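Quick start: read one record
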Amino acid sequence: MTLDAVATDSPSAEGRHVVLTASAARRVAALRRAEGDDALMLRVSVSGGGCSGFQYGFSFDHDIQSDDHRFERDGVVLLVDDVSLDLLNGAEIDFVEELIGASFQVRNPNASSSCGCGTSFSI
């Protein structure tokens, strides 16, 4: 995956980035179609909690906040707030379909460990 696939409209990102894979972009596009709202943007955030100290949050949003960084892939917009971007810098957001189920997954190079559920990590 090259970073050419991801653009940021946030000059203050200062070299920080998050990659949205083609698979994740396709899934978000399908979810937007199912909701009947192509204006929805995927928001990924990090908050304290979970079994490892931090946890990922996924939601749809219509609004861009003043501290958001915007990344785009194949017409799908990914929003990450500034504090979360520090913890997600260099991460890849993917959508994986396996025999046991399908889910968004975060491959975060900043995480020193993660729990079995895949939504919680520590640094």
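The radius of gyration is 14 Å.
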